[in-house]
Amino acid sequence: MSKTKFDTWQEYFVFKGENPNALSDTLAKVDMPERLRKSTIARHILITIIEIENGGWIPDYEPYFNVEKYGSNSSGFGLSYYGYVYDAWTTGTGCGVRLCFKDYDTCKNVCNKFIKIYEDLHLN
User: Fold this and answer.
1) Are 67 and 29 within one domain?
2) Which residues contact 111 (CB under 8 A, 6 or more apart)?
3) Is residue 31 located within the same domain as residue 54?
4) In terms of domains, do 55 and 115 share one?
5) What is the dihedral sign for C-alpha 95, 57, 64, 1?
6) What are the Cα distances from residue 102, in Å, to 2, 32, 58, 124?
7) Could you say which DSSP state residue 29 is in?
């Protein structure tokens, strides 16, 4: 079983040569609800962690999905689909592409180690 490359989320930013607090410092100047600020920062942190843990691996979703924006019907992020349901067009998202892992062990290790960040993303 593999382990995560670093012990803290800040180390992932240092590894990339980025300031770990840059986004939170910038968002502190923006008038927005705290729950939205926490969620935005958490997503940024998780994308950075997952990019490094995946080691350059990018999900191969073709030809299963066609990632396009369908006018005003786009769900706005992730792999979107659209369809006709009960006299109305609908869209949805199955997963965010940038939050996909290359394998189960990597996913399990990152999620277990950084559960608080996932809580900030989904529960705030």
Assistant:
1) no
2) 118
3) yes
4) yes
5) negative
6) 12, 34, 8, 27
7) T
Range of the domain at 81: 60-98
For the chain, the residue count is 124
Per 3-state DSSP, the chain is made up of helix, strand and coil in percentages (nearest 5) of 45, 10, 45
How far is it, in rounded angstroms, from Cα 76 to Cα 70? Answer: 10
Q: What is the DSSP letter of 23?
A: H
**pLDDT tens digit at each of 124 positions of the chain:** 458 899 999 999 999 999 999 999 999 898 988 889 999 999 999 999 999 999 988 877 665 555 555 555 544 444 444 554 555 555 555 555 668 899 999 999 999 999 999 999 988 7
User: H-helix or E-strand containing 82?
Assistant: strand 80-85
* 8 and 47 in a common domain: yes
Same domain, 51 and 106: yes
User: Residue 104 and residue 90: Cα distance in Å, rounded?
Assistant: 31
Domain shared by 124 and 106, yes or no: yes
Whether 65 and 119 map to the same domain: the answer is no
